[in-house]
Amino acid sequence: MSVIVSLDIKEFYRPRAHPQDTSGDTGFSLKGSNGSTVVLIHGLTGTPNEMRFVANSLNKAGYSVICPRLANHGGSIRVLKYTRWQEFYESVRDVFTKSELASTPGKVFTGGLSMGALLALLAADEFSGRVAGVSCLAPTLFYDGWNSPQSKFFLPLGYHTFLKYFFYFKEEPPYGVKNEAIRERIHRYYGTAKLDDIENAAQYGYPYFPITLLCQLKFLVRHLEKALPRMRFPVQLIQAKDDDMTSVKNSKFLYDRIGSEDKEMILLYNSYHVITADQERDIVADRMQRFFDHLRATPTGKSSHS
Predict the structure, then answer these.
(1) Which helix (H) or strand (E) holds 40?
(2) Which of 40, 203, 213, 292 has its CA 20 to 30 A from that of 70?
(3) How far apart are CA 62 and CA 267, in angstroms?
(4) High-pLDDT (> 90) share of the chain, %
(5) In the CATH hierarchy, which fold is given to the domain comprising 2-296?
(6) How many CA atoms lie within 13 A of 291 on its CB side?
(7) Residues 65, 201, 212, 53: what is their CA dihedral angle, to the nearest 10 degrees?
(8) Distance, CA of 79 to CA of 256 (rounded, Å)
(9) Is the pTM of this model over 0.85?
(10) Non-local CB neighbours of 135 within 8 Å, separated by 6+ positions
(11) pLDDT tens digits, one per residue of 134-157
């Protein structure tokens, strides 16, 4: 990643609060046959499309799948960058409180990629009476992968000043993907995209990452960390050993602090960060299905994994 600065004079006069941007990708749902539902949550500046392969695989196995679009994703990045983590989480809460899931019986599981994994844990904690297990995919608490920019160490200087509203990271290869064909398709968009270019954001996510959202991730992690010891539901952690954005330390951090004794950590050896779309996406989908299948067959909702 490289750092760019956008000095738009209108930012000085822009209201701090924005209405939710409802343009672009709105998420999707798939009806299953086995009576259980999986709520899948995409990553920060990502898109529900990055969960599509896993969603289709789980649906073929009988699961209903709901994949919401997180608040303000798919629209203007100048709106997205003002969004608080609580608003992202509210998009997930709405699935449990305002969608048909609220009145649908059957076991529910959550799963998420990157920051989506953290939101999946929060939802399981809040709705512990409904959620029988969580699958965390490349969970992201801090960006410490081998492709993380060295300039990130200077970010604290801007966290508490207005300067954070002008700085963005520009995504650069490998874009979290080891598969060369997929990477090339992303590069055709990311390589020449301007800051306000969202033409293909619904398919590939944003080519730029606002620094303000790193601040929100930091606040989210601080909130989540306090809740981890009380989490007793089964948890699965899947991450690539060579994750370019977030090291395995992220999964280990969660594994060591989650209060549940029912947890497993799985490492992949031929993928980067976006494991739901990369070389081992079949393995990811299979391990998630096996995890959920076992919990479905367990009356208490507990798994024998450890």
Answers:
(1) strand 37-41
(2) 292
(3) 26
(4) 74
(5) Rossmann fold (3.40.50)
(6) 30
(7) 30
(8) 36
(9) yes
(10) 109, 110, 111, 112, 120, 235, 236, 238, 288, 291, 292
(11) 999 999 999 999 998 655 554 555
